[in-house]
What we know:
By secondary structure, the protein is mostly beta strands. It folds into two domains: 23-139, no CATH class; 144-248, Lipocalin, CATH 2.40.128. Helices cover 0% and strands 52% of the residues. The strands form four sheets. An eight-stranded antiparallel β-barrel has the order 12-13-14-15-16-17-18-19. Strands 3, 5, 6, 7, 10 and 11 form a six-stranded mixed β-sheet that branches. The chain has a four-stranded mixed β-sheet with strand order 2-4-9-20, with no helix packed on it. A hairpin with a 2-residue loop joins strand 15 (189-199) and strand 16.
Amino acid sequence: MKALAPAMATLALLAVSPMAIASTSPDGLRDFLHPDSQLSARDEAWVLYAHRCGIPLPDPLRAPEVTVEETRIVVDLFLFEPTIQNCFEAENLPPVYYHASIGKQAMGAYTVERRLWLRSEGSDERRLAHSDLAEITVGDTPAISLSGSWFNPEAPGSGTFISLLPKPPEDAKPRAVLYLAEVEPSGSPVWYTGVGEFEDGLLTLDLIAGGSGRGSMRLSFAYLRCGEGALFNPAFPTFFTPLVQLTAVAGVPACAPPGQPFPAPITE
């Protein structure tokens, strides 16, 4: 194969024979749960598979299957191994992620098993290629992907920033800091700050305004689902301000899963 121009990424055409299944996962993915192992009952959880050239592909003939038995969640992912894979692979090319939802779970501790089933091209027989285990805890506090800025598109000039503090000691709830930017009737900007704990996805705290003599107020933030929340006065819960997440914190995974869903089965 001729050398490519220096300005282009170094590419190689690979012809890969079927790989031998080892004791480690074919995709080498250690943390297959997304977005985190600590979630709330309002968070949707996902199981990931990371594909790179030369390892089995998602099987287009069979969709993932999820079985929940009390505190054990079994996720069967079906893969197939082509006789030969012809693909271009650049140096340091990131994997292509596929995700399967395990939905929202009730509060409690769960063991999640990811089982990878493999068939060879042209065969209907499948064998268990690998199995991984992970622990997930569903509690009062949303996933850390909640951290970031939130705003109401219909209320320019105001906004909310929420940050989950580092993991607390064992058996203690995580704490959250909330900053609220508002505009006073006079037109002056003001910041309110408070610290509290979530209860079933609900954060209620006393906010103190910046500066002297500006007072305080009691406010609740409700985490509804990935990227959606609401602010309201707990004394008048039917009147609320809808919020959407605008930015996340650098280095923290987003609540939405990376990549694409496993392909839907091909039907004749």
